Structures are given as structure tokens and as C-alpha cells.
UniProtKB/TrEMBL annotation:
EC class of the enzyme, as a word: ligase
Molecular-function annotations in GO: DNA ligase (ATP) activity
Chain's gene name: ligD
Domain DNA ligase D polymerase: 29-286
Keywords, alphabetical: Ligase
Protein name: Non-homologous end-joining DNA ligase
Organism field: Streptomyces monticola
Superkingdom as given in the UniProt entry: Bacteria
Length: 304
């Protein structure tokens, strides 16, 4: 029998709580997934707030079927808030829109977590489509490169972005790489993408043999792909604190720059669900400045 629980006055049916989703993670169950999302809800919800959610669902665990969806899932409760956004994420859509979920509160978070999902968001908010309030670089290592090499590139990007007067933050992707993030005053996504591409090209030039701005697979072994494309209005990035569909219950976790500088082995920046509550107690939300308008920067002239 499916247990019914009440969250903030909403009745939720939470199913298969004993189902093991991460066999390689010590038998991490669906119930533990829900517990994880509940314990980090304060920080996670702040980063999901007012952003249309895309779901990567893996209801049978990371070894089972996975499917990515932006549309509102079938059976979504009527009380779950949604937003009408341009179908492609941009403004040139001929007026066509799509409806996406907004995860604004604990009840909606628990409903979505019960679907077994990663949370992905665009770099813009629902009431300002295609106007990015953050910039992101997704640093993706090509074997035998690892997150160690990603950290080298991240430190170069930090210095370069700081020289342009921007504040720079980092988190693990929860997979193989690292995300570098910058809070911005709302700026057209195409301009943010152009600026990010220019820096990715510069990184490839300044870090020969290490950084790569092109997606070409044959060029990637041993290098770090500096993916600037997730700044495009139609693209999304794994949200801070989301679990990932990996063999273990890894999390896209904010990290300090001291941790980035000290990364010497592939396992140094791997964080599991059980690591996040202690980190929040020790550091607070390291990405809090991303949602603090006082830290938002402006792109250099010529890119605004």
C-alpha cells in the first residue's frame, strides 16, 4: 500500500520507499533520496525558485531507463505551480510557449523527488525568459583527464573573470567535471553566450594542451572541454544540490576555491548525499551569492 503523507498541507503519495536506487552506493534507497532532498531543501529551493524545471528521471536507478523532460509530467497535482515559457527558451519563437513546473516549496519538491529526478534549470527566471542572471561554464574532462585538470582550468577562468570585475563560484557537476558560475545583472542570453565563448576560446589559446572550446570528440582525450553553450536560452544545467544519476548518489555540490586549488586526486571533489548536510552546517550555502543581487556583475563593455 502506498503511504500517504502530508507536507505543508498537501497530501502526497510516496511510493516504493524501500526500493534500492543506488546499489553501488551502499544500497541507497528511494526513501533516502527523499530524506536527502528534505534535509537540503532550504538551499536547493532557493536555487530552483522561479526557474522552469527540466527533469532527468531515473525511476529504476542510474542503471535503468532515463528520460529527460521539460513538459509538465502526466499526473501532476493541480496545486503544483507552472509557468508558460517560450518553447525554445528564447524570444524568437513565434509566440509558441510550453508549460513547465516551478518548484517553489517543500511540497512540490517532495512530489518531484518522488518521481526520482535530477533537477535542471536554465540561467534565466520564468518572468524574464532569455535574460540570464548567471553565467556558467561546464568543464568536462576527456579521459585520461579528470576533475584535477578541470580545477586547473577553473582557476584560470576565475582569474580571467575576476579581471573583468565579476564574482566567481564553483560547484562539482556531480558527474565527472566542474561548473564555474558567475551572478549577473539580467543580460540577454545571446550576449552572455558570446562572452562565454570568447573566454573559452581564450582559455584554449592560453592553456594549450589542456583546455578545448570545441565539442569535437576526437580532440577531447586528455583535455578539458570548456562548454560555454549552456548559457544559451534553450539549454539547462544541473542545479546546485541535485542528486545525479550516477553509480553512487553523488551531488552537484558547491565547493570552496581552497578545495579547488587543493584538488590533487580524482576522488577529492566527490560528494555524496550524506556529505551535504555536514557541509551546509560548516559552510552554509557557498552559492548563496548567486541569488544575492548585491553580488551580480555586468559583462564588460562590448558584451552587454
Amino acid at each position: 500500500m502506498t503511504p500517504i503523507t502530508e507536507v505543508e498541507g498537501r497530501r502526497l503519495a510516496l511510493s516504493n520507499l524501500d526500493k534500492v536506487l543506488y546499489p553501488a552506493g551502499g544500497g541507497f534507497t528511494k526513501g533516502e533520496v527523499l530524506h536527502y532532498y528534505a534535509t537540503c531543501a532550504g538551499s536547493l529551493l532557493a536555487h530552483l525558485y522561479n526557474r522552469p524545471i527540466s527533469f532527468l528521471r531515473f525511476p529504476d536507478g542510474p542503471d535503468g531507463q532515463q528520460f529527460f523532460a521539460k513538459n509538465v509530467p502526466p499526473g501532476t497535482p493541480a496545486w503544483v505551480r507552472t509557468a508558460e515559457v517560450p518553447r525554445s527558451g528564447g524570444s524568437e519563437t513565434g509566440g509558441r510557449t510550453a508549460k513547465q513546473v516551478l518548484v517553489q516549496d517543500m511540497a512540490t519538491l517532495m512530489w518531484a523527488a518522488n518521481l526520482v529526478t535530477e533537477f535542471h534549470t536554465p540561467q534565466w527566471q520564468a518572468d524574464a525568459p532569455a535574460r540570464a542572471d548567471r553565467l556558467v561554464f561546464d568543464l568536462d574532462p576527456g579521459a585520461p583527464a579528470t576533475i584535477v585538470e578541470c580545477c586547473e582550468v577553473a582557476l584560470w577562468l576565475r582569474e580571467r573573470l575576476t579581471a573583468d570585475g565579476l564574482h566567481v563560484y564553483a560547484k562539482t557537476s556531480g558527474s565527472k567535471g566542474l561548473h564555474v558560475l558567475v551572478p549577473l545583472e539580467p543580460t540577454p542570453s545571446e550576449k552572455v553566450t558570446a562572452y562565454a565563448k570568447a573566454l573559452a576560446v581564450e582559455a584554449e589559446r592560453e592553456l594549450p594542451g589542456l583546455a578545448l572550446h570545441r565539442m569535437t570528440r576526437s580532440l577531447r582525450p586528455g583535455k578539458v572541454f570548456v562548454d560555454y553553450s549552456q548559457n544559451a536560452a534553450a539549454k539547462t544545467t544541473a542545479a546546485p544540490y541535485t542528486l545525479r544519476a550516477r553509480p553512487q548518489p553523488t551531488v552537484s555540490a558547491p565547493v570552496t576555491w581552497d578545495e579547488v586549488e587543493g584538488c590533487g586526486e580524482q576522488g577529492d571533489l566527490v560528494f555524496l548525499a550524506t556529505d551535504i548536510a555536514p557541509r551546509l552546517r560548516e559552510y552554509g550555502d557557498l552559492l548563496g551569492p548567486l541569488i544575492n543581487l548585491n553580488r551580480a556583475g555586468r559583462l564588460p563593455r562590448g558584451h552587454r
